[in-house]
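To assess whether ligand presence alters the predicted conformation, the chain was also submitted together with pyridoxal-5'-phosphate. Input:
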Amino acid sequence: MRLETRAVHIGADADPESGALSPPLQLATTFLHAPDGSQDHGYLYQRYDNPTQARLEAAASALDGAERSLLLSTGMAAAAALLQALPAGGQVVFQRDLYHGIRVLAEDWLPRWGLTAVFVDAGDPAALRAAMSASTAAVWIETPSNPLLQVVDIGVCAEIAHASKALLVVDSTFATPVLQQPIALGADVVLHSATKYMGGHSDVMGGLLCFARETALSAQVFEIRKLLGASASPFNAWLILRGLRSLPARMAMHCANAERLAAALDAHPAVSVVHYPGLRSHAGYALAQRQMSRPGGMLSFELGAGREAALAVCAKTRLFQCATSLGGCESLIEHRASVEEPKPVSPPGLLRVSVGLEHADDLIEDLRQALEP
Ligand code: PLP
């Protein structure tokens, strides 16, 4: 079955009791068990596991080619649970350009868990090889990355990680399973902030970890979710499951709009550079052609005139709303350095754009008028 068909049908089979075609939402916190504690129905307590979440996890596994998937309350909770499951004393090699929250987690929190973080340009295989050591437990890449849209070769990183007996973790939030299949390329774990495209409507948070194989690591993350309690609400699982049904259709339009917008920005004299893997001028263009089915709905661009000019554009847009996050129906624009306080790393003139599902001509017109001096 092709991905579009799987997205519509998996986890969405009719409720056997009522015949309802929308998956049942089970909000129970507790489930009947036998006097000796054995779980007649397969569930004990909502924080451990629950039927609505199990449907979503099965659907996520089917879309990503995973043996086991686990939902946590947010993308950050999923990242933290995975990192906490790694053996203390280990090192994690992170790609340098990655989501700000994960970089702060790596820098400030890993040491508390007995882990060390190092940062490399994962697009440079020699640099990645040089960063590996006997204690490297995982290589963590994000492709395309947030906010510079760098594209990293998943297969090459998998080879390098595996040669040192380390895991390859791929944050595939920008791509979703529709545009990229990291497990097929060698990844051991795929992270999705389901808050973004999977939910798709800016109204739900969740984080999915899709494990290529069901191993001690996935069991450990299950225990962390159970004991540290970063479980998602079943309602959130239900909303994300609903989002998956339309994910391929939405991704097609996000991509079509972003491709047109990137080309228009690229031709604009006030724009010094557009970061979008669908542009031939992008360093990751050829790799994205091989590794992704389309370049995605996220892009960033820089204004030669710097920070003040970038802030002025944000203030002038009418359709693009100034807000963080991404992957919803509505287009968003954000001056990244401003929201990365207190440790901004993004270039001062950089604006990140989540290209929504409006008409591409309206989006292009809006940015053109906002870019006028
Ligand atoms: N990974 C990426 C690439 C992100 O952009 C984000 C959030 O923006 C996260 C992970 C964290 O996800 P959440 O906000 O659901 O915790």
